[in-house]
Design brief:
homodimer; 608 residues; alpha+beta; Butyryl-Coa Dehydrogenase, subunit A, domain 1; Butyryl-CoA Dehydrogenase, subunit A, domain 2; Butyryl-CoA Dehydrogenase, subunit A, domain 3; 4 domains; eight-stranded mixed sheet; 53% helix; 11% strand; globular; oxidoreductase activity, acting on the CH-CH group of donors (chains A, B); flavin adenine dinucleotide binding (chains A, B); Acyl-CoA_Oxase/DH_mid-dom_sf (chains A, B)
């Protein structure tokens, strides 16, 4: 199925996003305007991104000691993205934006992610960076840095990890010391000098924009020069690659930020990934070493500022994963329709004299395509749902914002991890459908698989997502998030229970939900969190499959009313597949969680 | 755990391979001689293979129009392999062999597969080729071709697939026409001229050996020039790259075999993979075009000859997959012991002031290591078990050969597919343990993952293995294979049921076996094979996990008696993990098989 048609079905028929027009912020919203955005994105992605996706994989970024060289197509593609108007699409009209809901922004961006995730990363990171500044920066910081980013003049990064501190942010050791007497009064924000090394910084160096705005987590030492322990000592700083005047003009003076090296990756090769040295003295901005940075938000609130954006960033990662999956699904569907091989098995055996048939006629190929459809279209639906929650959170009254916020907190670990795992599996199935051809670089599916493998690692590993879900989200607000999610699921179950065609699925979902609630209780019944959380990743998997089953049932309810047969029957088949072949897997994942199985916790390191 | 120690435990304590010395062929066998072979392999693999595995990935084979260029380390490594004596290790003493059992040969080879699967492929293919000739060739063919291969002078290939016929061998279109009046009397075998294109030919062109012996499946046209339909028309031919005299001397005359191109792959890059044109007229051997080939076996019996070697070839693929998994397991275990990050969760929370700990102390890291151990050491055990079946089949009396042959037939689809799927998953977990570092090419685990992805595709895809298992193996000999396997499993269950520590696992295995038997019946109860086989891949998965649970329980029984604590407790922990976290998965796979779910079979192509 065409991606545009699928998006239109999900946005208009399933989510009914036009209803957002009831809210002042989205008053101008209608189908036609959203469709125009989608069509525009589809066209630009097809012209400027998709044709060059292999090239940016093959021609990896090179560092010549001075500059990072990228293929020219990257600059062309990001330029086209900027001209599309998508950078500021969801921003206030006052900032040059279209006040497009996030759900429509995500739908539009999905075309670029599907066409070339590695090139799309540059604008995606820039918008995330700008959104953080818009939420936590001073008026000046917004006007200088966020504005330049939303206009596409400067690009942005997020600098969290360090070589010795990946998932463990409390061990960040980059220091930020107040800079000079006048530092506190700097119009761009309280000024510091930063020293430290940041690892895994995507888009950390390139020549695509006239400046790069690094957002850096660092710690301010106490009077004795000691860094505060834990994450509470983290503060957030704007560290531009080139210094900037108070009027927002980029100068030619380099800040003390130096590229220490490029990481050479398995996939996602079109995005530079860097080790950056801050304040090692390579440059001497304003006459002395140390990277100049301007604090965002209060001292010690760095992680809080970051967390504010984390749900959105994680939904963004999930979207990338889903669209890599979708790209592989489309490619393998196309291949299966063209490629002739073998003959269908029939009750009377095979007629070896007959013509070979397109492989899509073989049951096992259909299975692999249907699984991809269930994984990728299901993931996309979940992500659109989450994006709409963000819209409702931002535009609703206090009660709605709180309620919808809790739901979003619950769903975020799944929105990030589930597509990362299952749309990667979809990419593997896409290779399998291609047979030997899929294993060659003459077809795109091996690249999708390599690219997608990143998504279980960055922006909080799979393990971290599991700990977040079982360790924090299900217990937060006295379990209110989980209760709210159950209420949503029960509403779907009720509706589906009344429709003959989906009654069986409704009953299965109801049973699975009850099982999950009971497992959650058992998991926490022992009083030893280390035992509970030893199986957090399995809980994440079980929970994720339950959420996707719910999403599929809800989507199927909308599909029933579709006049378009392909859309209706395709969605119903994928829903059926998910309930019959996927949902039963949760049993094996949840059992160990429920009994607080300590096999893994207890195994002695020396016995591994 | 050290791979050598593990092999010694599995060979001597678990399989008790010395008992093979009861048989005339293996009369000289003892622990010391096997251990010497293993240590020799370990040393050569560590010195000549492992250090160059990344290089052969980066410096892919290049075709300059005349020759295929490989990095010099490849020639050096295969030379060292030849000098190790492993090429002929399992052959008759009369052929210069050591009459080493296959099980010990596989154990020795596992070091090379773990060190560099891509370089090991050259000798592995050569031995497989020679074994086929020894089984089906004439005395002259053995003396000329097999001998040169076992001496490492000539290398071998298998040429089955064609661009239009991958899994569907009945569609092979390469033609073999009798060559001249004297063709039938050629001392090297009935002589033909072959014309056609062969795809995916590993080691199809290189300069590593003075000649290349292609074994080619082709069809002999009838008087009207028509090729017989189906696989029954296939015959097998020896097609050497350079012509050979009747005395076995390689001449400088090129046969009409031309490299049409190299395939550029996701992984396994150190092995050339080729499209070969036979008989297109690029060369004119003996003055006319057409590739000269010598028939092996009778006309129309080509596939039968191939099938004879298929079990062994598939066990070989499984071994490669298992050892790629093992390489990743070892690398991630090593990394997890060195890398410090985070602090263990304790009931009182975390002490952020404390030092970071090696990540192996985190429960989720232990889980990922234990899963890898369960997958890879379990797969290796299964493969050694299968290799021992081959030894018993070859050296036993007729009754034993028949019985053991049936068991081997049953287990082969699992021995090939299970490691291909689950040791690939192990490679993914190895990446995950490494975090971002695992996603870079500075660590070996991403290459293992890429290399291993091939194994679900070649030598019969995953789907083909499922069809073979459910469509052929469980029904062959009126179900006798399945009954024999059940008897083996029940023996293990009985033994384990009497040991307190493994009683629970014994009961679980017993229940799972009963479930599988019942599902097998239900699957075939409908009378419509297309419905039964629509879920054959899921049956393969369920069956595979059952087999591995059995293997683990049997291995654990031996481990109980081990004085070495690391060995004993490590194996018991992996067994426990497998039964608690893996075996329960079979439920979700087998349900659709049992009810002959037709969701995938029935979905309309247009709705995908």
């Amino acid at each position: 199925m065409n991606h545009l048609s699928n998006l239109q079905f999900l946005l208009f028929d399933w989510l009914q996003v036009e209803k957002l027009a009831d809210r002042a912020r989205f008053a101008d919203l209608d189908r036609a305007s959203i469709t125009a955005v989608l069509e525009n994105c589809e066209r630009i992605a097809a012209r400027e991104f998709a044709p060059h996706n292999r090239q940016v994989d093959v021609e990896e970024p090179q560092f010549d000691g001075e500059r990072v060289q990228l293929p020219a197509v990257t600059a062309q593609a990001v330029r086209a993205y900027i001209e599309s108007g998508m950078l500021a699409a969801s921003q206030d009209a006052a900032l040059g934006g279209l006040q497009l809901p996030r759900v429509a922004e995500l739908a539009g961006n999905s075309f670029f992610a599907m066409a070339s995730i590695a090139m799309f990363a540059y604008p995606m990171l820039t918008v995330g960076n700008a959104n953080l500044l818009l939420a936590h920066g001073t008026a000046k910081q917004k006007d200088v840095f966020a504005r330049a980013e939303l206009e596409g003049r400067w690009f942005g990064t997020m600098c969290l990890s360090e070589p010795q501190a990946g998932s463990s942010l409390s061990d960040v050791a980059t220091r930020a010391q107040p800079d000079g007497e006048d530092g506190e009064q700097d119009p761009l924000g309280p000024r510091y000098r930063l020293r430290g090394n940041k690892m895994w910084i995507s888009a950390g160096e390139h020549e695509l924009s006239e400046n790069i705005v690094h957002l850096v987590l660092a710690k301010v030492p106490d009077a004795q020069g000691r860094l505060p322990a834990g994450v509470k000592g983290l503060s957030l700083f704007i560290v531009p690659k080139y210094l900037v005047t108070a009027e927002g003009v980029r100068t030619s003076e380099r800040n003390d930020v130096a590229l220490a090296g490029l990481n050479h990756k398995l996939g996602y090769r079109g995005t530079t990934n860097t080790l950056l040295n801050f304040g090692e003295g390579r440059y001497r901005p304003r006459g002395s070493e140390g990277a100049i940075g301007y604090r965002v938000g209060a001292e010690g609130e760095g992680l809080k500022c970051m967390f504010h954006m984390m749900n959105e960033a994680r939904v963004g990662v999930g979207m990338g994963a889903a669209m890599l999956g979708m790209a592989g699904y489309q490619a393998s569907l196309d291949y299966a329709q063209q490629r002739r091989q073998g003959r269908p098995l029939q009750s009377g055996g095979k007629d070896v004299g007959a013509q070979q048939v397109p492989i899509i006629q073989h049951a096992d190929i259909k299975r692999m395509l249907l699984a991809q459809k269930a994984y990728c279209e299901g993931a996309l639906a979940l992500l659109l749902y989450c994006a709409q929650l963000i819209d409702r959170q931002h535009s609703g009254n206090a009660e709605e914002a709180q309620r919808v916020g809790l739901l979003l907190e619950m769903l975020t670990p799944v929105a990030k991890s589930w597509p990362s795992q299952w749309c990667l599996e979809a990419n593997s199935l896409a290779i399998q459908v291609h047979g030997g051809y899929g294993y060659t670089r003459d077809f795109p599916v091996e690249q999708h698989w390599r690219d997608n493998r990143l998504n279980m690692i960055h922006e909080g590993t799979h393990g971290i997502q599991g700990l977040d879900l079982l360790g924090r989200k299900v217990t937060m607000a006295k379990g209110q998030g989980l209760r709210l999610l159950s209420v949503e699921m029960e509403a779907t179950i009720r509706k589906a229970g009344g429709r003959g065609q989906l009654r069986e699925e409704a009953a299965d979902l109801s049973a699975a939900l009850q099982q999950l609630l009971s497992v959650t209780q058992s998991a926490w019944a022992g009083g030893r969190p280390e035992e509970t959380l030893a199986n957090a990743t399995l809980y994440l998997q079980g929970f994720g499959h339950l959420v996707l089953a719910w999403i599929w049932l809800d989507v199927a309810l909308s599909a029933l009313a579709q006049a378009d047969e392909t859309m209706r029957e395709g969605k119903l088949a994928a829903c059926r597949y998910f309930f019959r072949y996927e949902l039963p897997k949760i049993e094996a994942w949840l059992q160990p969680v429920a009994r607080r199985d300590d096999t893994c916790l207890q195994v002695h390191e020396a016995h591994l």
